[in-house]
User: Fold Lipolytic protein G-D-S-L family from Granulicella tundricola.
Amino acid sequence: MMIAGSIQRSLLVCVCAVLGLAGTASAAKPKLEDHWVGTWATSPYQMDNAAGTMGGADMTIREIVHVSLGGPLLRVELTNEHGVEPLTIGGAHVALTTGRGDVSLVTSNALTFGGKDGITIPAGATAMSDPFALTLPPLSDLAVTLFVPAQPMTKVTFHGSAFQTNYLAPGNLLSGRTISSADGVKTSTSWFFLKGVDVKTTGDTGAIVTLGDSITDGAQSTVDANATWPDELARRLQGDKKTKGLGVLNEGIGGNRLLHDNAGPSALRRFDMDVLSRPGVKYLVVLEGINDIGHAYDPVKAYDVVTADDIIQALAQLAERAHVMGIKVYGATLTPYGGAKYASPAGEAVRQAYNNWIRTTKALDGFIDFEKVVMDPASPATFPAFSPAFNKADHLHPNDAGYKAMGDAIDLKLFTGKN
Assistant:
């Protein structure tokens, strides 16, 4: 009996020890490894190049991107997603800008791709650079300079509305400090062959993707002012120690729709490439659907007719696909469009039904009420309009003040796990 009692006591001690170890393990925080997070991104689509404005001769393109997160190690993703021929990049440099397209040469890095200076990207593909060291401050401007030798280009992969001044010049000016005064230089407010910039970070960092149309892209915002609502959100995140580890990736396309291709692939079709493939994404904010409604109920020429149930189902699908990847999804209510060219009472009824669903559904993790932020309180509730203080006269797009109000209205607790 004494032997049996000793065995029982020994077993009890072992069980307690195991439980103690388990408790210690569960209480310990997991080690946070270095990982890649997007600091800047854009949504490319196709430009017809039948006139041969690009590819007919060697050219250098210097493109300015405004990053959100900083970091010590970077990589750049180039894209030929919408090209129909292989795209050859003869060389690429990255540096901090000093204004007007000029760069700081002491920060300049020649990109490599598998150790080589250039790369040929197959049609429909992207290419990731090798990582390189650069002390990148948050909210800074980065210049990506590409040398593109003469080659066939039936279609060009670009983002049409960058709201940044970029530079295209003849020849190879990769290593030049300045490009704005080069012979034959032209300016553009589009980005060409760029997909994203990532930083390698340590700690609890991640990215927020803002998916939408021209109101997310920043239509009618001041060029070179970084005045979109995602820009304002990025500034606020960096100003709060609880959220400064979050980058913002603007995946808006002017004219874009949820269900049908229009300006660029529909949100449903581009979701994998523009959202799920971005590194470190933790949160998604969707502000999209007004173009689906506007075109479907256009009093002049309606086409691609959709119902409220159709666009609700589309957003629910995006949320389901994001949730599978562990991404939290916030719906943003559609801003007013009373007085816009394609506005109609029938379309307004759909807009209000869609907004009501966003405010009440359990399919999303929360909502941001942009309609309430920019609506004119004096306009009729049955067909509200933009506040004149926040609109640039087309009754559809915010001005800089409107974009700032939208960015300022977002509760940062949505991104701290305390909502």
User: Anything to note?
Assistant: Residues 1-30 have pLDDT under 50 and may be disordered. The chain is about 25% helix and 25% strand. The first strand starts at residue 35 and ends at 41.
